Amino acid sequence: MKKYIVKRIIYMIFVFLIVSVLMYLLYNLIPSDPARAELEGIKTTLRPAEYEQRYQNLREQMGLDDPILLRYARWMGFAPEKESGELHGMLQGYFGYSNFFKKDVTEVLPIRMKNTMIINLFVTFLALAITIPLGIFCAVRKNGKFDNAVQFMTIIGYSIPIYIIALVFIWLFAVKLRWLPVSGMETPGSNYQGMQAFLDRIYYLTLPVLIMTFASLGGMTRYVRTAMIDALGMDYIRTARAKGLREKVVIYSHAWRNALLPVVTVIIGWFITIFSGSVIIETTFTLNGMGQVYYLALRNSDYELALATQMFYCAVSLIGQLIMDLSYGLVDPRVRVDK
Amino acid sequence: MKKKLVSMLLVAAMAVSLVACGGTAQNAPESSTTAADSTEAATEEAAAEEAASRPNRLIYGSTTEISGDLGNAWWTNNASDKKIRDLINDYNVITFDQQGAMLVNSTVVDGDIESTENEDGSKTFTVKIKEGLTYNNGEPITAADYVAYALVAYSPATLEAAAGVVADSVVGSAEYQSGESNVISGLRLLDDYTYAITIVPEYLPYFYELSYADLSPLYLPMYAPNATLTVKDDGEGVYLDGGELNADDINASRFIYEGRVSAGPYQIKKVDTGTLQAELVINPNYAGNFEGQKPTIETLVIVKTESATAIDSLKTGAVDLLDTLTDGNLEINPALDLVDAGGFTYVDFERNGYGKLQFACDFGPTQFPAVRQAVAYLLDRNEFANQFCAGYGSVVDGPYGLCMWMYQDSQEFFADNIDSYSYDPAKAIELLEADGWVLNADGSEYSGTGTRYKEVTAEEAGTYALNVTLPDGRILMPLHIMWSSSEDNPVSELLVVMLANGQQTADAGMVIEQTVMSFTDLLNYMYRDASVDAKYGVPTYGMFNLATGFTQLYSQAYEMSMKDEYMGTYNNNFIKDEKLATLAWDMVYGVEAGDDATYLDMWQQFMDRWNELLPDVPLYSNIYYTVHADWLEGYDQSSYWEFEDAVLYATIANAE
Fold first, then answer.
1. Phi and psi for B448 in degrees, rounded to 5?
2. Which domain holds residue A172?
């Protein structure tokens, strides 16, 4: 097992490096000039000499005139920085400088990561709390009226794009009923502290959490239902029933535990997405999370920020894959992961 | 055992989520009450209840990010950050009034600014600051604080902090910035409340020369927290004594929120980049703007809103004011519906700029003024503006804004001299034929269908890729305009329908070939920026669609200059016309300050020449709308008078 994990980690490092090269090259292929973009808005207020000086300063600061491989090596921390002569890259924990926020990326991302994680944790727990019992219930009463109704609803829910769901929910709950706020993360100018601040945050997050939960119900419910139907059709279920076990025991102790294997991979996948923000929801609700900051970075040619975000996702998904593979063995001893 | 463990974990997860649900549900009424402060205000019932005790607070919805960079104008701030910056800083020596006119800030300056012409051609402005001005922390503001601004702005440390301030207009500032000298010889601290600033002869005369005297107070401890710097003048110029500035401290000053020392109508209470909000409260020590006006709205909250839901936010009271709405169908009409329904009102004003078709005037068919004029005649600009702005826009006939005093004083001149290029396809054909676009591709006389050609010289032909060389050596240029347009741009979509694919364009024998690209790509081609990629350095597109705007210090000197160093970056029409360039330059660098009549005369001549050469075709100039709750009274915004100016005069009805 240990040998397997070490092997996988070495493999992950290798993949991470390849991805980093590809991503860095791809971002640098984009025909943009972030230094010029930075000055575009105030150009008419600057004299040509002033513009040129600012432009050259920014190019120098952003290292835009250096060869791309050297820039990559500096970014990763393989080559020393121009000014300090020291290694100062991703490998040393420096993820770059955000030109938009005028701060190091490590100062920009944590608060957004926290926001995204709070939202996604709520969504994940809520969705699992609804979909697992619902999927099991539908599987047990397969083709019944309730099951058919749920199937119909989940297909609709699964098919509607999340931005449509978002607009409908905003119209209903925020504009018509006025139960919940249209957007934002806290009451403007409230300055609440402690529990009041917490409740205020919950109030503002309710609508986006509801929407994200609603949008995720369809797929997971159907997944659990299918896994349970497969499990309930197995011979050992018939045996269990023949032994005279109570139906609850048959369903939850025998069928559900065996249906877990396919379900658990999806669930772990969900937990991994806790770190990744929804661009659409975060943008629509002005939630300052990872999805929004990534979108903002791309729109403003803030490529070091975008790259850092993407590399973080890359690391998370590599680690997630490892956890997922290990979890197979944990859930089902027949699956061995030490080879 | 392992299975059991995982099952238990899952159950626990479900239980936690249920508890979370339960908790939320149980607390919902309380939390609703907590957050209702902002949402209830918009409902009619609540409005009646709150009428007697409405918070003295205005919530401003901004569609740009609040990044929290409050650095001054040496750096580039985004719109929200700039708004915060402008609200917390004032006391500039020179300012602008509601009509965009430059004036001496009489709240700050004692008497007039004296100007003295020196023998070497330089000019010295002597400024006496009024006594009694203070920062928000109560510390007095003296002339040393104004001088400190220049000493920090021009310092090598600020340059290192990537601020990029050019120090060449003030005598001795270039030597100071390069580190050759630690003194700015052209800046003198004459006494506690008087400073003098000397401008190099190369920058004179200048129509806006008063702007050279402009400085604002700078609180030195914020820029050098680890040193006790003082401004000194031993008779040779000003310098900083007691330590040195460094780039890290200067950069860090941009992100100081708590206890930030400033001298504007408001001061920072909170900047939260996590929730994208900034809260400002009145600076009790503020002496007023140039008219002595002080704000009465106690608290301003600037929050990020999304364009898609901004109107809903206004409707539900999540924000109280939406600034400068542009989109007629998606923003202005729904906002005006709100106004009609009651509870809201609006102010509208003209955009000081316009959307345009911009031509490259040095190659291909668009190098010929007749072709540019023909394009203008082939487009029904009034209809275009009407459709694009959904009725909230107008058309201009030159590089000006309808709000400019020069335009308003030139109505008669415009009526007599400026061609509005009203839609007239026949006139377009007439112009093209007169200019020599009378051939087919094989050199025969134009048949009346298909693309027109013109015989051109080798110099005119240049490297234009679509030229045809006949066996007899004649070079023919097709009337085929390569058009670069940005993606997801409704202007481009409308131009395709009304111009590029219009029957009138085909009938005129003109082809307009659209290439859709990112806006960055468009700029690269427009600037011919070979530093990004060599392909951009090759003239490829003759027409671009984008927009432009103007500041109070109107100038086209660099934009129309024939000097090589301005080509691309400023003169991105690549137009080289001696008369146009001279007029544009002399208008600001050849007219003495205060000589409005000469300036206006040159401005009109410039407009006339520009209108004839038509380097751009102006397409539309928006009418902007700012919509706000009707309990905000006295709010009057205009093209030159932005939210940060107008809010000083506004009050909240029945405020607490």
1. 105, -10
2. 105-331
Chain B residues within 8 A of A206 when measuring between CB atoms: 24, 28
Does the beta carbon of B214 lie under 8 angstroms from any beta carbon of chain A?
Answer: no
**Nearest of A329, A314, A130 to residue A216 by alpha carbon:** A130
Residue among B166, B212, B484 with most chain A CBs within 10 A, to mutate: B166
The per-residue b/e assignment along B44-54, b for 16 or more CB within 10 angstroms, e otherwise, is eeebeebeeeb
End position of a domain, from candidates A94, A118, A139: A94
Model confidence at B463, in pLDDT bands (50, 70, 90)? confident
Residues in chain A within 8 Å Cβ distance of B20: 122, 125-126
Residue the block writes with tokens 């922390």 = B137
Cβ neighbors of B395 (< 8 A, separation 6 or more) are B381, B382, B385, B420, B618, B619, B620, B621
pLDDT at B296 over 90: yes
HSE toward the beta carbon, residue A223, CA cutoff 13 A: 19
Per-residue pLDDT tens over the stretch B357-409: 999 999 999 999 999 999 999 999 999 999 999 999 999 999 999 999 999 99
- A185 close to B (CB below 8 A): yes
- Residue B427 banded pLDDT, cuts 50, 70, 90: very high
- Encode B164-186: b = buried (16+ Cβ within 10 Å), e = exposed: bbbbbbbbbbbbbbeeebbbbbb
CB contact under 8 A, B59 and A33: no
- Mean pLDDT across chain B: 90
Residue B48 has what pLDDT?
54
**Cβ contact B314:B627 at 8 Å:** yes
Query: pLDDT digits over B544-557, tens only?
Result: 999 999 999 999 99
The domains located in chain B, with CATH, are 92-253 (3.90.76.10), 353-552 (3.10.105.10), 555-614 (no CATH)
Q: Are residues A127 and A87 in the same domain?
A: no
Which of B37, B76, B306 is closest, CB to CB, to A38? B76
Instruction: Return the bridge partners of B483, or none.
Output: B514, B543
* A202/B24 Cβ within 8 A: yes
Task: Tell me which chain A residue has its CA closest to the CA of residue B517.
Answer: A31
Cis (ω within 30 of 0) for the bond into B334? no
A301 interface with B at CB cutoff 8 Å: yes
* pLDDT given at position B44: 53
Give the residue from A60, A94, A128 where a domain finishes.
A94
CA distance A78 to A69: 11
Asked whether the beta carbons of A199 and B288 are under 8 A apart, the reply is: no
Alpha carbon of B149: minimum distance to chain A alpha carbons (Å):
17
Among B62, B67, B315, B526, the strongest candidate for a mutation testing the A interface, having the largest count of A CBs within 10 A, is B67
Q: What is the pLDDT of residues B279-290, one digit of tens each?
A: 999 999 999 999
Q: Tell me if chain B has a CB within 8 Å of the CB of A129.
A: yes
Cα four-point dihedral sign A199, A201, A207, A209: negative
Partner A contacted by B20 (CB < 8 A): yes
Q: Which of B164, B521, B551 sits opposite A53 (nearest CB)?
A: B164
**Chain B residues inside the 8 Å CB shell of A133:** 14
Q: How confident is the model at residue B240 (pLDDT cuts 50, 70, 90)?
A: very high
Asked if B254 is an interface residue toward chain A (Cβ–Cβ < 8 A), one would say yes
Question: What pLDDT digit, counting tens, does each position of A170-182 carry?
Answer: 999 999 999 999 9
Is residue A165 within 8 Å of residue A153, measured between CB atoms? no
Domains contained in chain A, number:
2
**What residues of A are in contact with residue B65 (Cβ under 8 Å)?**
100, 296
* pTM of the entire predicted model: 0.85
Q: Are residues A77 and A120 in the same domain?
A: no
Nearest CA in chain B to A281: B306
